[in-house]
Write a structure and sequence with these properties.
By secondary structure, this protein is an alpha+beta fold. Helices cover about 35% and strands about 25% of the residues. The protein has a 5-stranded mixed sheet with strand order 1-2-5-3-4.
Length: about 130
């Protein structure tokens, strides 16, 4: 089987995912994903698509991550893996869609407005 590649995004993070048949190795920016994502919560997020589809340990992943923070990168990687699984076999789609793993989370940070310290915060009002 050839390499399947898909893209996942979350906030400003972008994950380019390359999926091949293998034995479950996940490399993120040429490092093991357990080293790249030190917390167990983020490691669970990365492997969530494989667990939902029931194919844990059957595919190797090579991913290039950029932008955003560590949580956004983990969720972008999850979306890329889910999209790649669906492109390999369409039978995975109902289970992944039911868990919400195929939906791109479009929430972004609101921009800072001029004359204000943050996006919504205002400077303290002084009557005199």
């Amino acid at each position: 089987m050839e390499v399947t590649n898909r893209t996942g995004r979350r906030k400003t993070a972008v994950a380019r995912v390359y999926l091949t048949v293998g034995n479950g190795n996940i490399l993120v920016n040429k490092r093991d994903y357990k080293e790249y994502f030190p917390t167990t919560t983020l490691q669970y997020v990365v492997t969530q698509a494989f667990n939902v589809a029931g194919v844990a340990g059957k595919y190797d992943v090579k991913a290039n991550l950029g932008g955003g923070g560590i949580k956004g990168q983990a969720e972008a990687l999850r979306l890329g893996i889910a999209r790649a699984l669906v492109s390999i076999d369409a039978e995975y789609q109902p289970a992944l869609k039911a868990e919400g793993l195929l939906t791109r989370d479009s929430r972004m940070v609101e921009r800072k407005k001029p004359g204000h310290p943050k996006a919504r915060k205002r400077f303290q009002f002084s009557k005199r």
